[in-house]
Amino acid sequence: MYRMVYAMAVKISLALQRIGELHLLSKKRSLTFNEIVELNHCLSANSDYWLRMAYLENWSLLHYMIDDFDAVQTVCQEIERMKESLHY
């Protein structure tokens, strides 16, 4: 699971970097068709990451509400791994 989280975070870090580059390019000129497609892919990867994060946070809250603290700890560890791997 950690390998998947790390790969996802690296993908997001690179996607966010590329979104920034494409944004700067768009201030100088119109983006090409391929750049627009690439921007959409990067935005999709970013959306997938944050959707996964929201999913985990909701599961954490659910487990907390039913007093399943072992599950809360497991889910929170996964959330922390996702957060930490963004700052590699």
Describe what is shown at a glance:
It is built from 3 helices and no strands. It is mainly alpha-helical and 88 residues long.
Task: Please explain how this structure is put together.
This protein has 88 residues and is mainly α. The protein contains 3 helices and no strands. It has helices spanning 2-28, 33-65, 69-85. The longest helix has 33 residues, at 33-65. The protein is elongated and about 55 Å long.
Following the backbone from N to C, one meets helices and strands in this order, namely: HHH
Percent strand: under 5%
The chain-level mean pLDDT equals 87
Tell me roughly what share of residues is in helical segments: over 70%
Radius of gyration (CA) equals: 17 Å
Identify the overall geometry. Answer: elongated
What structural category arises from helix and sheet content? mainly alpha
Distance between the termini: 17 Å
Task: Count every beta strand, where a strand is a DSSP E run of 2 or more residues.
Answer: 0
Defining key terms:
single chain; mainly alpha; about 90 residues; 3 helices
Helices and strands in order:
Layout: H1 2-28, H2 33-65, H3 69-85
Helix pairs in contact: 1-2, 1-3, 2-3
